[in-house]
Design brief:
CATH superfamily: Glutaredoxin
CATH class: Alpha Beta
CATH topology: Glutaredoxin
Number of strands: 4
Helix content: 25-40%
Mean pLDDT: 92
Largest sheet: 4 strands, mixed
Order of helices and strands: EHEEEHH
Shape: globular
Strand order of the largest sheet: 2-1-3-4
Radius of gyration: 12 Å
Low-confidence stretches: none
C-alpha cells in the first residue's frame, strides 16, 4: 500500500472550454476512490492543455497522447500508486 494517498493534478484549458471533461473526470475519480486520494487539484490554464499527473508523474498529456484521457486509464494509474 502506498505510504500516503496519491495526489492527482489536472491542468486543463479553461479558454478552450474543457471544464465539462475535467469535471466528468473528477467525478469518476471521486466516485471510484473517494478519500483514497489525498487531493485532486484543478489548474485552469490555456493553450489547449489537458494534462493529468498522479503523484507528479504525467500519466496523460493531450499534446503527447492526443485527445482526452479515459477515466479508466487514469483510474489504472491511481490503482498502480495505491498498490494491492
Amino acid at each position: 500500500m502506498a505510504a500516503t494517498p496519491p495526489k492527482v493534478k489536472i491542468t486543463y484549458c479553461a479558454e478552450c472550454g474543457y471544464e465539462p471533461q475535467t469535471l466528468d473526470l473528477v467525478k469518476a475519480l471521486m466516485l471510484e476512490f473517494g478519500s483514497r486520494v489525498s487531493s485532486v487539484e484543478l489548474i485552469p490554464w490555456d493553450g489547449g492543455t489537458f494534462d493529468v499527473s498522479v503523484d507528479g508523474t504525467l500519466v496523460h498529456s493531450m499534446t503527447r497522447d492526443g485527445g482526452f484521457p479515459t477515466a479508466d486509464a487514469i483510474k489504472k494509474a491511481i490503482r498502480e500508486r495505491l498498490g494491492p
